[in-house]
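Why do we bother with holo predictions? Because pocket geometry can differ from the apo form. Keep that in mind while you read this record for adenosine-5'-triphosphate.
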Amino acid sequence: MSYIEFRNVRKVYRTGDVEVCALNGCDFFVNKGELCVIVGQSGAGKTTLLNILGGMDKLTTGEVFLDGREISKLKTKELATFRRDNVGFVFQFYNLIPNLTAYENVEMAAQLVKDPIDCDMLMNEVGLAERKNNFPAQLSGGEQQRVAIARAIAKNPKLLLCDEPTGALDYQTGKAILKLLQQLSVTKGMTVVIITHNSALTAMADRVIRVKNGKVISNVVNESPVNVEEIEW
Ligand SMILES: Nc1ncnc2c1ncn2[C@@H]1O[C@H](COP(=O)(O)OP(=O)(O)OP(=O)(O)O)[C@@H](O)[C@H]1O
Ligand SMILES: [Mg+2]
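The structure, written out:
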């Protein structure tokens, strides 16, 4: 069995009388330690897929396995424990805690685990050492995004899930962040999943997954992934 496996996963959202099938029989796998890039049009189901993988949301039918464990069977409380111990999540819309400073947002995540990554070092790595005492409302969108990234990494998670992690960043800052993510995968053996609209980033991935209309339409190993520095877009 692979490290991550989705088997025939369906997710139906109901809003009043309207049903939206966000995932419609989604099958794929990812191996441990891989850096995986997920691409697909807006509305294809990428965030839904990542939320279910990270235990943020429950599927309607199907099975999801992580490290041999069927996480789709877990109850809400078990799922919360699973998330705390295993998953770092960079949300598409950051979800920072407004009444904690940038540093405290990161520190709080680090305190959840036994073996965190040093918060000061991380604030430096994401270029926010000077702004660490600001509250989220006192930060630019891109700075908030970098706090969200530092927070997810601080847990030193086995699985790092990133939903459009560079969406709000300029070219150079985005590149620096992607370099950090690639390093985590290479040096720590972290399994990293990145959702992006930028198909140039597929060149940095060990595995590229394409999502369309709630299905995985291709899942391809990249035999020669390149360093982010070598990619231009
Ligand atoms: N909570 C929800 N309630 C109802 N419908 C939802 C909900 N979340 C997502 N959807 C719908 O499910 C579909 C897939 O949404 P999802 O957010 O997974 O797309 P996405 O691929 O991440 O798109 P984007 O690239 O724009 O972020 C969309 O049609 C969306 O409107
Ligand atoms: Mg999305």
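Residues 31-57+85-225 form a domain with the Rossmann fold fold (CATH 3.40.50.300).
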